[in-house]
Amino acid sequence: MTARHLSFAIAFVAIGAFYTSARAQKDCEKPLYLTFDTGHMAIAPLVADVLNRQQVRVTFFAANERTKEGDGSLGDHWAPWWRARAAEGHEFASHTWDHTYWRADMGAADSPLFRVRPSSGPREGQEFVLSAAGYCAELTKAADRLKQVTGKTPLPLFRAPGGKTSPRLLASARACGYTHVGWSPAGFLGDELPSESFSNTALLNKALRTVRSGDILLAHLGIWSRKDPWAPVVLEPLIEGLKARGFCFRTLREHPVYGKQVFR
Fold this sequence. Notes:
By secondary structure, the chain is of the alpha/beta class. The protein has helices at residues 3-27, 44-54, 79-87, 132-150, 167-175, 200-210, 231-244, 259-263; strands at 31-37, 59-62, 91-94, 100-108, 111-118, 128-131, 157-158, 179-180, 216-220, 248-249.
């Protein structure tokens, strides 16, 4: 195949993917976008089983977080789990490498610096300063590892840990090819809230009552601090309840705004 023929083939595949996505979006009149951030991963097998049984595809935002088993959520131990999710049609995006929280802007506007604090990695719990290039390296390291373990190119999106950002941070990320994705107010599913104050039943009922078409939903692959784990009790009844209300699930590749970042 000549280079010219190859370029035509690539363009044809991209256009076909775009129209397939558009058609799927049109067929789904009340879409929801379920997303998962990484966590301690103990519930990851259960989450995968539920999603597969319910035939729901989601978008995973992954960092190399500390886990209950293995060498980190993006380590070798969990690599087969990520590969299996790619084979099932899920999508992936960066959550920074060391789950690095933005704390404050520093430096001049034309040479931005950011005070950060990672919750994983060799500098866990320490505050220090990253340049814009350093923050981009955090995003890209996670994206590169996802591509390595899944064989699938991650979406050019990211989610900042805790959703904490600034306009300057977002601009720096956009400059290196990443668009930030948060979550809808009703899409905060509450799995990181204390179970003593927010029971699984209360969180389930709230989500079923308040989620609306187009919402981006947020959950995690395990929260260390929650004593009564959320996913084993809530995830499948939530999906079933939302389906019964006429909702359907799509990945962020099919989102009317964020999906455009993929094909730009």
